[in-house]
Amino acid sequence: MQFWLPTVFLVAIYRGQKSDAAMMRAIMLLALLVAPASCQREERDLTGSVPEKPAAGIEQSVLHPGDGNNPAPARSKYEETAFDVAEGKRLFQWFNCSGCHFNGGGGIGPALMDDKWFYGSSIENIVATIKEGRPNGMPSFKGLVPEKEVWQLAAYVRSVGGFVAKDVAPSRNDDLNAAPAENRAPTPSPFNGKGP
Amino acid sequence: MIWTRYIDRRSFVPLLFALLFNSPVPAQQSGSPTSAAQTDVGNWVMPAKDYASTRFSELDEINSGNASKLQVAFTFSMGINRGQESAPIVVGNSLFVVTPYPNILYALDLTKPGAPVKWKYEPKTEASAQGVACCDTVNRGPVSGDGRIYFNTLDGHTIAVDAETGQEIWNVKLGDINIGETMTMAPLFAKGKVYVGNSGGEFGVRGWLQALDATSGKTLWKAWSTGPDKDVLIGPEFRPFYSMDQGQDLGVTSWPPDAWQHGGGNVWGWISYDPEFNAIYYGTGNPGPWNPDARPGDNKWTAGIFARDADTGAARWFYQWSPHDLYDHDGVNEQILLDLNWQGKPRKVLVRAERNGYVYVMDRITGEVLSATPFAAVNSSTAVDLKTGRLQMSPDKEPETGKVVRDICPAAPGAKDWNPTAYSPKTGYLYIPHNNLCMDFEGIEPNYIAGTPFVGANVAMKAGPGDGHRGEYTAWDISAGKEVWTINERFPVWSGTLATAGNVVFYGNMEGWFKALDAQTGELLWQYKTGSGIIGQPTTYRGPDGHQYVAILSGVGGWAGVVVANELDTRDRTAALGFVGAMQDLPTATTKGGMLYVFRLP
């Protein structure tokens, strides 16, 4: 979006000018206006605060007897900052998550880059999976991984699944490149069971 | 179960000797009742068939002339759709088979049409154990002895069950999944003992072998694969042939400080037993982590073979196939004990088709390597130096942290993994089901967290030299040290094999074809398409009706097939420790399954 706005201005200014010199002035002016705006970075939370309570719970089931209402899972700030997702990627190696899930394809644990999510794809569900473990082999990392880093890990797992914006997801590795980079993951369709 | 004991104790050993000693047969003089011997010929009481691990059956009703007429006798659904690596075993009128996790043991009644379930034993294996099983949730089979069936569970229990009733006799917990320890191997039963070992080489689990009392499950001794000599049961009897394996506490000093405590050397493969020398032989798994930069030194006693006193566990000799293993080349494959005429002299040898790509012929008394000849594409090493016993590595294929080394052959699962060979005394050939795989390998910094993988490598495998075929089935002339014929398979041959006196050999491929070949020529005699890829171990037996049957489990999985069994994503070539790189087309060739097929002649 930030890219389109100046372009619209530029076209508007160009139409109102006659000479090339005036055109150059207009471009210079625009550049001065846009430059500070381009320095605007995504905000990084340095406090280490984490959501106190998952906004929408961590339901495992889409079956809600009675009303059929499925609360929409909330997005977390962690999956909206490249820094947190990149940290999650580092931690994914560091805590040996990659020992079971590898570069997203799975092995001992299930694939994370596909569109099957046994225990839910929302960030709350993934956080719960990391902290509590799951009965068929996923260990509980409660007490080993600090809370904030659990959220960063979960945000990274979301990026492997293609849920995270392309400008936030990591790009290709310096390591052996044998799997597509996270920012090349296809955006999940809302109808294929991947969730939001 | 008196008759079982009778067979095991009285006739089995002489029978083995009859098999071993081809020319003059000294043990036959001890004389075994013909009827008992025949009963045993018709049984298949352990996955390896006999203590020498020949996987050779004297049955010859099915032969190269009539094998083309084989048809399905009965089937049995295992109810579990994970990799079926188990061997169906047969004692008398019952067939015993164990599923992958949750390791349900079934007895089928062979006297009734369709072989219905006689009993079922469910061990209630801990579900979380699936999270520490490196390479699919497999089990390699039960074993019978003294009227009991013994098997291991993924969560580290060894269990004895009454063969007649299915009642649990004892159940001992030997492994701890919280340090990544599982059990997948088939126990060996010999001399009233049950020998079992642990898995966990990808989790930094310290390997061991234990001898349990077959009546109580009590541990008689435990031999670690790393650490001080007293832990490894190395004492005055220990006489390794080569100087590289001689010295005090090498299980500590050939590692960086304390690294041996997470050093692997797991005993998840095959054990052979030599009654004459009262010795057991078995291999040790890869050192942990895979990244060799993290563990300078020879990393004793991993990736090698021990000969031990069967009663006390005292080590007699050790030989290291891959000192300072660079490539996850576990040394756990089966060793076939043979008495051969070697270069004009009778020698008591053991023969191994090893993961590092060589067929070894060793003197099993002294541990001397008589020959080591490559049977598959190898560029990671150049030869085995027979003077020092040491494998000569190729420096340009040596892995490094932070560097991708390409096209290393054989790949991590080796030229041949766990899936056992067979030996036919009729042809003198070793039948080797194996891989044709290479890999790219990048060392990365490993981080030990108990109960999580301890590998430190990014790996991506690929087909070895040739037309893209990833598997081979080779008949190998042991005396001549060369290949006689080879059949190429699209996927790694991850099934075991068996040979019979009927001049037939059997194996299965990962597309699901179960095949009978002429043992002499390799000619395809018959094949049958089962429901899923085959990674199991074929066995053959004489049924209560007096006819010969051949049994195999169908159900793809294992390390090679986990891409299907665990529904992995093939876009990640590093998935499943890099095996997915070579198996991206397997999901198009087969689907999950779990079915026992038993065949006979019409």
Automatic annotation (TrEMBL), chain B:
Matches recorded under Pfam families: PQQ
Cofactors that this protein relies on: Ca(2+); pyrroloquinoline quinone
Signal sequence range: 1-27
List of residues binding pyrroloquinoline quinone: 85, 140, 184
Cofactor: how and how many bound: Binds 1 Ca(2+) ion per subunit. Binds 1 PQQ group per subunit.
MF terms (GO), sorted A to Z: calcium ion binding; oxidoreductase activity, acting on CH-OH group of donors
Catalytic site positions: 328 (proton acceptor)
Disulfide bridge partners, by residue number: 134-135
Keywords: Calcium, Disulfide bond, Metal-binding, Oxidoreductase, PQQ, Signal
Family of the protein in this entry: Belongs to the bacterial PQQ dehydrogenase family.
NCBIfam families: PQQ_enz_alc_DH
UniProt name for this protein: PQQ-dependent dehydrogenase, methanol/ethanol family
Organism: Phyllobacterium endophyticum
